[in-house]
Amino acid sequence: MAESPPLLESLADPRITPEYCRHIGGAAGNCYLLGVVHDHPASVGRVERVLEAVDPDTLALELPPAAVALYRTYADDTDADEGPPRFGGEMSAAIRATDADVVGIDAPNWSFLRRVVARLVADRASAATARRVISSLSGATREALTCRVAATLNHATSMTVAYDDPIEYECSHDDSPAEQADHERGHVATVQALLGSVDTDGSALAYRDETRERCMSDRLAELRADTDGDVVAVVGVDHLETLAETLEQE
Predict the structure, then answer these.
(1) Contact by Cβ (8 Å): 80, 86
(2) Which domain of life is it from (predicted)?
(3) How far apart are CA 125 and CA 9, in angstroms?
């Protein structure tokens, strides 16, 4: 059952609540799911505190495997003497906060491609929907390859090549945990209200995201089965509920 376990409750941090943190126990081992908002100070603080407390064997990130190397370079950025890394938000902060094995569990990968094509065929999706799905896959593949090239440049030169600029919010890492948590909660509520007004049933976005979640949950199940220790997964907050429910059922 998904819950906020005593270990996390004991941290008494307003950024660490059942709304953003889930614990999946059982014979397959412990899995801690952390929902995050990209680059938000509350999310960065959440993953840092939880990883310090849990000390997992495996850190699973909602990143394509090809992008992990770039976020490692962000985590190793020597120009960031204090505070979180300059780039990569909560993902690079998570890598810096632990010595665990780091795994990218997001698309694009072969499992995802097979699944999404099979679903399009089974659903007899329209040609227009299929074209939009394939177009989005092409874009995601280009982004993953760009991350790989940027990581190579970072390793080969003294400069840090940033894939994208950090998102700025009306709160900072210097604000209190309570202030960060309040701002993040309001931001998530606003975004969810906007998304709730858009009908995505049967759309290219639905095909892509539902297949991504299925692939991520399968990969997490594999990681839990392959390690004797704990797994911490850092994923977008909009995927948190679905992944928790799927892992509970498995």
Answers:
(1) yes
(2) Archaea
(3) 45
> Would you call 200 helix, strand, or coil by DSSP?
coil
Question: Cα separations (Å) of 56 from 37, 38, 73, 94, 127?
Answer: 21, 22, 21, 11, 44
Q: What are residue 236's DSSP bridge partners?
A: 36
Name 113's Cβ contacts closer than 8 Å, sequence gap at least 6.
107, 137
For the entire predicted model, the pTM comes to 0.81
Q: Note whether residue 182 is domain-resident.
A: yes
Across residues 167-171, what is the average pLDDT? 91
Q: By the 8 A CB rule, do 110 and 64 touch?
A: no
- The domain in which residue 107 lies consists of 6-249
Candidates 21, 14, 62, 22; CA nearest to 42 is 14
Q: Are strands 58-61 and 31-36 parallel, antiparallel or unpaired?
A: unpaired
- Say if residue 121 is exposed, middle or buried (CB neighbours under 10 Å; 0-12, 13-18, 19+): exposed
For 143-179, the DSSP string reads HHHHHHHHHHHHHHSSS---SSPPPP-SS-TTS-HHH
* 123: in domain: yes
Domain total in the chain: 1
- The predicted-structure confidence for 70-117, as pLDDT tens digits, reads as follows 889 889 875 555 678 888 899 999 999 999 999 999 886 777 777 777
